[in-house]
Amino acid sequence: MSVLQLLRLELKEATHFRTNLYAWVLSHPLQLLIIYMLWQGIFHFTDSVAGYSLQHIVMYYFLVHFINSFLSSAYSVNYQVWSDINEGGLDKFLCRPFNYLTLISIKNLSRPGIDALFALPVLVIAVWLAPQQSSVFSWVMFTFSVWLSLLLLIEIQKVIGLLSLWLEKVFGLRDILFSFMMLLSGQLLPLSILPQWLGEIALYSPFAALFHAPISQVLPSQSVTGLSAIELQLLWLLVFILFSKLLWTVGRPKYQSLGG
To answer: pLDDT per residue over 194-246, tens digit each?
Structure first.
């Protein structure tokens, strides 16, 4: 099945449950309104926070919201892998000439475009709020970096899921990892707002490659930005690709088909 066929299937699924779809679309402005009101209240007492003006901080969270929408479908990859391993779904991949890890990646590259489409107005507003020095090239790099974030998140999720070959449940570990990810990726707060020692750790972690790296292409900060941030993404992407292949190679003989 091609990527285009998977995309059509995901689009049909997304539009089939229309009430849920409408609620999901309406949730975008509601969440952003809450964020705006929170930061507007903070800026009543200061002119800048870690070098950000109110305009830039609002732009920052609009970009975070768009990236999170683009990445949202990849958060379930760990469950997909866990389910295949624990419910016997892996059988149909092992008896066919498919590369399981590649198939999981392709399957999860079809939905993000649909999710991003509904969040596109958020990105348009972020572009409008952008500093004057943000060039077309910087937005091209932002787009490329967002795709790298998606590929990296898929690989991180595959690693978590593949641990099911050794662990009965991986969801507690996943939740702990997600908590660290929210703090160290720039999703919760810009990394420059964190304590210096924590910010420096976060900058070179794989989590910063998910949110901080794309945003730094159009909203520079006093940290790893531009091409250096993309190089960091590529490095961590390679590390997790190799790690997932290692786990698959070592763990596959441990698989026992007990479900299905």
So the answer is: 888 898 889 899 999 999 999 999 886 656 556 688 999 999 999 999 999 99
pTM of the model: 0.84
Q: What is the pLDDT of residue 22?
A: 52
The torsion angle over the Cα atoms of residues 197, 72, 19 and 8, rounded to 10 degrees, is 160
HSE-up (13 A, CA, CB side) for residue 158 = 27
How far is residue 252 from each of residues 70, 80, 105, 162, 246, measured CA to CA in Å?
Answer: 31, 16, 18, 9, 10
Distance separating alpha carbons of residues 52 and 63, to the nearest angstrom: 14
Mind listing the pLDDT tens digit for each residue in 85-118?
887 777 777 776 678 888 888 777 767 766 777 6
**With contact defined as beta carbons under 8 Å apart, do 109 and 3 qualify?**
yes
Compute the residue count for the chain: 260
51: left (phi over 0), alpha (psi -120 to 50) or beta: left
Question: What is the three-class DSSP state of 250?
Answer: helix
Both tokens assigned to 90 = 């892996």
The C-alpha atoms of residue 198 and residue 179 are separated, in whole angstroms, by 15
